[in-house]
């Protein structure tokens, strides 16, 4: 038990329940939901596992000190009292980022600067050396969170946001964030037990995340680096053991994952990204206009898509476009659970179908809805009953 410590996984608004479930399934202890975060307890191996295996986490933080702050001196003195030499060499490099909700500390950059000063001063007073500042590839990334009178200093175990999986080199105009895509697919109940489609697949993010969920492939296998790999206590053997244990839990997938896009450049980008992710054996991408297609076969289809919006809608008639979505689903896609996410809440009424579910989510800062339309066999079913 002595090797266990508290960690905090940050996520998007509305994804707290899914992240808590993911953590519990991975084996985390003392899982507690917050707002845009879930705290939990585990050891160093679990810290590696959480970074590699969580689909809906943006960052994993390791809090090392929490204290009350009323004045600047409180921040400086408390930060300076931390044994930074346990985490960093005096000739190493560091970066600090801060989030603040406080009457005195109103600027996050200034708060980060004061924190850095305290750390550097401690090293300088001890042996005359001081760590460098490296915002891109620091040996230690430190997170400062001040909420009213409480300040928490954490080590950032992840580094770059965990939505950067490492498979995406090509993107379209408004690519969907990988964490958002994974969360939406999980909210939709996709379990890999049917065919899956994204009829407006853009750069292929939803397709890649769906395939990884279906096969239980850890989402961050392709990452170039996690922040903890630069730490003093980095254990490469333990990391490889954890990686191997996660890979043993992958599973077979016996259905199809299909992507359509009417833009040839989007299809090219999506294919490139899917190939980078080594998922091309599971995913088939075609150059198709969804509004001119029909569902192949009678088996169940699970659909998740992010229709164009905002800057991608410049030359589109919203009423006509969303009307076409409804018409295509109604006439071409029986026995389909269709989920779409949009920040254009007004546009949803033009679809002309009654949603069976509506979930509030955020796409970046845009309030959005994840909406489900259940398309039944319809007239075919009625015809059978009449016969």
TrEMBL record:
InterPro entries: RlmKL-like_Mtase, RlmL_1st, SAM-dependent_MTases_sf, THUMP_dom. It comes from Winogradskyella poriferorum. This is THUMP domain-containing protein. It holds the Pfam family RlmL_1st. Gene3D superfamilies: 3.30.2130.30, Vaccinia Virus protein VP39. PROSITE patterns: THUMP. Keywords: Methyltransferase, RNA-binding, Transferase. Residues 46-157 form the THUMP domain.
């Amino acid at each position: 038990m002595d090797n266990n410590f508290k960690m905090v996984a940050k996520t998007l608004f509305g994804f707290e329940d899914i992240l808590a479930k993911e953590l519990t399934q991975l084996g985390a202890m003392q899982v507690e939901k917050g707002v845009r975060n879930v705290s939990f307890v585990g050891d160093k191996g679990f810290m590696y596992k959480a970074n590699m295996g969580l689909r809906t986490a943006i960052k994993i933080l390791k809090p090392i000190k929490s204290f009350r702050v009323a004045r600047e001196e409180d921040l400086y003195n408390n930060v300076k009292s931390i044994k930074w030499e346990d985490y960093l060499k005096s000739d190493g490099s560091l970066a600090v980022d801060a989030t603040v909700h406080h009457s005195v500390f109103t600027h996050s950059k200034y708060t980060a600067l004061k924190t850095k000063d305290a750390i550097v001063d401690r090293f300088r007073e001890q042996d005359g050396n001081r760590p460098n500042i490296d915002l891109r590839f620091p040996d230690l990334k430190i997170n400062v969170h001040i909420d009213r009178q409480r300040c928490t200093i954490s080590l950032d175990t992840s580094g770059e946001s965990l939505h950067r999986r490492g498979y995406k080199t090509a993107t379209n105009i408004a690519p969907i964030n990988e964490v958002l895509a994974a969360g939406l697919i999980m909210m939709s109940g996709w379990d890999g037990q049917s065919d899956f489609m994204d009829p407006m697949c853009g750069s292929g993010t939803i397709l890649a995340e769906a395939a990884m969920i279906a096969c239980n492939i850890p989402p961050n296998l392709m990452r170039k680096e996690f922040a903890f790999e630069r730490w003093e206590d980095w254990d490469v053997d333990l990391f490889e053991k954890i990686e191997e244990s996660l890979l043993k839990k992958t599973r077979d997938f016996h259905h199809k994952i299909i992507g359509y896009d009417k833009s040839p450049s989007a299809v090219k980008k999506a294919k490139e990204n899917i190939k980078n992710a080594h998922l091309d054996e599971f995913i088939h991408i075609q150059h198709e206009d969804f509004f001119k297609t029909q569902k192949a076969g009678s088996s169940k289809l699970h659909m998740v898509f992010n229709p164009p919006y905002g800057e991608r809608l410049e030359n589109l008639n919203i009423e006509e476009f969303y009307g076409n979505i409804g018409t295509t689903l109604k006439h071409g896609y029986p026995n389909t659970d269709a989920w779409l996410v949009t920040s254009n809440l007004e546009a949803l009424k033009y679809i002309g179908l009654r949603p069976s579910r509506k979930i509030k989510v955020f796409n970046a800062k845009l309030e959005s809805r994840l909406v489900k339309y259940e398309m039944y066999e319809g007239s075919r079913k009625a015809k059978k009953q009449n016969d």
